[in-house]
Amino acid sequence: MADDPQTPPSDLSNARIADLFDELGDLYELDGAVVHRVMAYRNGAKAMRDAPRSIAALTRAGTVTELPGIGKTLAEKLEALLTTGEIPALTKLRAKIPDGLRMITRLPGLGPKRAKRLHAELGIDGPEALRAAIADQRIRALSGFGPKSEEKLLAALDAAGDDLSGPKRELLSKALPIAEQLVAELRDRGAAVGVHRVEIAGSARRQADSVHDLDLIATADDAEGLVEIFASSELIDDVHRRGTNGASANTHTGLSVDLRVVAPDQFGNLLQHFTGSKAHNVAIREAAVKRGLHVSEYGILDDATGETERFATEEEVYARLGLPWIPPELRENRGELQLERVPKLIELEDLRGDLHMHTTASDGRGSIRDMVDAARALGHEYIAITDHSASHGFGDHVTPDQLRATIEEVRRLNDELDDFTVLAGSEVNILTDGSLDYDDELLAELDWVVASVHTAFGSDPTGRIIAACEHPSVDVIAHPTGRLIEKRTAYDLDVDAMIEAAARTGTFLEINGSPRRRDLHDVHARQAKDAGVLLVIDSDAHGPETQENVRWGIATARRAWLGPDDVANTRPWPALRKLRKGGR
DNA sequence: GCCGTTTTCGGCCCGACTGTTTTCAGTCG
Q: Which runs of E-coded beta strand occur in A347-503?
């Protein structure tokens, strides 16, 4: 019964728990805690967010302190959170420190120390009070503040509007093509100023889900000339900072771009530094210090010689630190610095087929033939046509009779095609009782069955997905968590239980390539691989051109440390077919 | 608060920029 007080509450997700510990770090910082204590909370939050297993389960098992960065105190707070639903220290701090104060530290130029003084000395508790104090010129009366401070804070408040919820991030699919065009332009037009190298750095190079800006690193004989070419690009809207060795600008899409031009002998150091992530770089530097080496964007200082060594390539930087070159997608401090050899990661060319796409039969924009032509252009050997099923709604549903007609159409088409296979499939809805919306006989006729939750997210998604895994005809669970990047969090899903069910039943789990989904995400996909589950990378294309979205699925797979063998559709269809449940 | 081929105490990555300051704290990436 839902109202039975004995019913245990469903576990908090790792992301939700990590948010609470990040908040604790912020509030301790505003409370004046020493910076290392604050960092301990943030490191702990990152460890929780990156953990492949349920933090709640690890806490109950008493093994959560095995995660690096989580010690006795954080474990006690986790236990309190899971048993009582709250962390006493957080409750106390929230009462003491207004939420508005935490919000205004997100204004550029205003950190915790100065925000704390504004609160203590002027009673400022949020954006409105800050704006009023600036209007009355009360800020400049404080020591360490002046008219410039007021001016900048006002500009920052105006720029932020009413939204201080944090910086907006752009989907990788929006940002990366712009970065690639800029790089191509700088390489091309840069020939006139002796350009040597131009590379994308930052989170875009790491193929993260989203980015907050773009970083470009270059070398050229005439650095200022390259900056001029950058500033005059048609992709650039306005340049807000320009120097002889770099510039900061905005694209017309509102994305911020930094270009840095360095000497060739430092290119490796700078590219490594600006590729990040922060956690990766911090870990590298801490390890280096123990060996008497100090790493910065300019070089590696060796205590033994007092010399700073510069490197033209990243390979040399990593080699000097005793490490193999680490692919950017792995640079998140999730174990990559302990590697003696880097695992072989999957590449776009490894995919032989795409097993999730839609046509005009449901909500797609192309015919089956259009989708075949697009897949061939991408070098694929097979596709599955998986239109939405009988209960899809929006007038786009496919009745059982229509599906039978599609199966026949696919069979006929296969007779005409050489060296290409079309599979008759469906993306069936997992209904609220865990059943599917075609009968079992019809499902058994299909070559490929994708099952997904599209409705009633609040209605036991875990139980429904496990039931779908146990269905003999279901091959793969699509976009398993339902998240939409920068838009919607995952539904309340027990990922551990889903992965266990997938492993037990031989069901594949999808990495959906839609750039807004990339679902499973990297941490969960890596967890699935470690549990022995095979992943499938699909485009979920709704038109011929969006089959290229498998690119984003590959990006996520690489961030999940997957190799070609971990992904089912790197195999030819006859080999993949044998891996289906029951070897059908 | 975490952690240990220096350690259970005493450290904890690096450098640039800014605005306010006579030498630097705070902020940022």
A: 353-354, 382-385, 421-429, 448-452, 476-477
